[in-house]
Amino acid sequence: MRKTVGSSIGIYLSCGNCGADKVPIPDKAADDTPIVCPACDGQLATWGTAKSIVIEKATEEGLKAIKDKIKDTFSGDNRPQVD
Ligand SMILES: [Zn+2]
After folding, report:
1. Strand residues in 1-83 grouped as ranges (E)
2. CA 17 – CA 20 distance, rounded (Å)
3. Cα–Cα distance measured from residue 59 to residue 28, given in angstroms and rounded to the nearest whole number
4. How far apart are CA 2 and CA 16, in angstroms?
5. Residues 16-49: pLDDT tens digits?
């Protein structure tokens, strides 16, 4: 099985045409490389466009993880006291 960028970073795209998920990101994709759905052959976007979406999503998930961590740390007895 061919290794793809998506599988190596654990991110897949989903197809707006047919709804297929896990659309692989081509290996060695350049910014103008089209991302093509293997189910319907529809072109989703170029990797340049998809990359910015992936980064945005990764950032959102990263922020959520940080917020959850902060919430855990500052809940209960660990809550900081403000005088
Ligand atoms: Zn599709």
Report:
1. 34-36, 43-46
2. 8
3. 22
4. 23
5. 899 998 888 877 889 999 999 999 999 988 989 9
**Which amino acid belongs to residue 75?**
S
Around ion ligand 1, residues with a beta carbon closer than 5 Å are: 15, 17-18, 20, 37, 39-40, 42
Report pLDDT digits (tens) over 50-73.
888 878 888 888 888 888 888 887
Q: What is the pTM of this model?
A: 0.57
Nearest by Cα to 13 from 55, 52, 44, 42: 44
**Could you tell me the distance, in angstroms and rounded to a whole number, from the CA of residue 70 to the centre of ligand 1?**
39
Residue 83: half-sphere exposure toward Cβ, Cα within 13 Å: 0
